[in-house]
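Hi U.,

Before I forget, here's the chain from the pilot set. I'm dumping it here mostly so it's searchable later in email.
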Amino acid sequence: MAYTQNEKPNGFEAKATPVDADILGVGDSVDTFRTKGTTWAQVKAVLKTYLDGLYSTKTQIDTLTGGGTWGTITGSGTGPYTVSRGNYTSGTLEIEYGAAQLHQDGTDGFTETTPGSGTFTLDFTPTGGVKIKARYQYI
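Structure:
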């Protein structure tokens, strides 16, 4: 049965914006379409997994000195530093300082100012002439 936008199926009130704990009714095709419930958070997680597979992520590497096809990091001392692309996928930033790989935000030599924002600070003062690289993903 189809409903118009103003009709309320089974007497339910309309809700403009669902929150993660809201439960949506579904007909379970594996269980002869018995009515089951799933949360909005579960629906979003399934959609994210599905949609992430449709779009390729790209990795960009920036250096403090620039050059080549890499972007440029701006900043000095302990920072703040800014990557050339600006925003990127949160949780993907890795910093390389010389031969040292600084993987973990906040515990391994650098801190993102705001995750995914494109700015970070170093937990140390870098030595002149040592290359700093930032690697991150974006869509």
